[in-house]
Amino acid sequence: xxxxxxxxxxxxxxxxxxxxxxxxxxxxxxxxxxxxxxxxxxxxxxxxxxxxxxxxxxxxxxxxxxxxxxxxxxxxxxxxxxxxxxxxxxxxxxxxxxxxxxxxxxxxxxxxxxxxxxxxxxxxxxxxxxxxxxxxxxxxxxxxxxxxxxxxxxxxxxxxxxxxxxxxxxxxxxxxxxxxxxxxxxxxxxxxxxxxxxxxxxxxxxxxxxxxxxxxxxxxxxxx
Length: 224
Known about the structure:
Layout: E1 5-9, H1 18-26, E2 33-37, H2 45-55, E3 60-63, H3 74-79, E4 83-86, H4 91-101, H5 103-112, E5 116-120, H6 122-125, E6 128-133, E7 141-143, E8 150-155, H7 164-174, E9 180-183, E10 187-192, E11 195-201, E12 208-212, E13 215-218, E14 221-223
Parallel strand pairs: 1-5, 2-3, 2-4, 4-5, 6-8, 8-9, 11-14
Antiparallel strand pairs: 1-10, 6-7, 9-12, 10-11, 12-13
């Protein structure tokens, strides 16, 4: 059984980019079994097709769809994977649907077994206690109902959306969100167990931060 591993991506490029290659490498498999969970985006067919096209030559790809559910035994299906990759979209809706279908419980078991968990935007938010999200309308808002595999909060798109940085820093400073981590688009945070192991970037100058009530502190970032 491998050490639990989570990769939280602030934002990623097309499938097969540098961050995806790094996440695949973390499985330790030549051709890993990878399940894409597109719940946050409403299981859009275009997103599913892009996933298969982008990773199908390097991985055994499958999808867990919950809006039109075809997998009866979710536990067996997910625990047979080397990597579970969660797409972006609406964090709050995704968490609610996962809890209704029992996915949240299975993901914790998968994590404890050393199956790599990864995701971008909403798919990164979900692993933490709390996050910055646009789940509730056009404006950003704090959400304090994450899965809690990782302590604290997360903010994706730190440089990619104008209001992400100032709102997140203010919420942490005011106690509306616990201290946490922020990542630019193209940057991933790799957690071993519950501790941050490293930050990696597929873009030049990509940044990551530890954000405390006193302000953001930059983290070392390894270029891919």
